[in-house]
Amino acid sequence: MKKSLVTLIAMSAALAAGSALAFPDKAVTIVVPFSAGGPTDKVARDLAVALGAQLKQTVVVENVGGAGGTLGATKVAKAAPDGYTLLLYHIGMATSASLYRNLPFKATEDFEYLGMINEVPMTLIGRPTLPASNYAELVKWLEANKGKVNLANAGLGAASHLCGLLFQQSVKIDMTTVPYKGTAPAMTDLLGGQVDLMCDQTTNTVPQIAGGKVKAFAVTSMQPLTAPALANLPTLDSQGLKGFNVAIWHGLYAPKGTPAAVTGKLNEALRAALKDADFIKKQEALGAVVVTDGRLAPAEHKKFVAAEIDKWGVAIKAAGQYAD
């Protein structure tokens, strides 16, 4: 009996090892925890093409939006740990720990880290009819309209919410926060003049800035950006908000317990995909910077996320903005 049990365990281990070695033998799904058409979705769809070429398998994108990205993240955390269901999440991987009191997953415990993808600066933009043409004029307008300014965001925990939160704290001017269910409706109302300002990722704002559909006031990086539509935009740091530096990063994750042989293959494929010339070109055109440093390694990316959890926890708790 004991010998049969040992044999069974050995056979199961052999089958698992064989399955890992054969990975992937079917399509891989990347879950994006936001609606289609948003900035994170754009990154995922570009990556899916480059990653699929490396894995020699189809990589599909599934949008599972809701609750600031936590619904999609929870789905992946509870998925089979076989490498066929992955999560592409932005900075919400770190901020959700402070934003949500009853979060159904733990960012540093319930996932296998595969590596960081890119960093995306933000842009401070306004409605086309806003009576300010540069950042200095914007500050004067904000001071003259305290209590009347509407600041849009794509929902609690969204990149635009976080950037807007820090901007309000930095300029020491309270604004009326207007949350939307996604970036698209927030941008629509900004274009239509229903709200005044939004701070959002360059991956979402560059087309609007290039088309002259919004007023652009500054970028949130420490250095000016080289993308054509952003080349003449000053940094908030250079405009008086010293040290203001907000970049929304994206990372790739698998469910906890995914075999090391599988995560190793995924990390190797991710590293190669991030060197794909077409992927790099598409990211650069949107102002995003593809990661090439140590954060490509799972352990280093996890260490980075842990530090981000601490950093954003301070800002979120100071603002007192939570979800149930």
Automatic annotation (TrEMBL):
The keyword tRNA processing does not apply. Residues 1-22 form the signal peptide. Keywords: Signal. Pfam families: TctC. Belongs to the UPF0065 (bug) family. This is Tripartite tricarboxylate transporter substrate binding protein BugD. It comes from Rubrivivax albus.
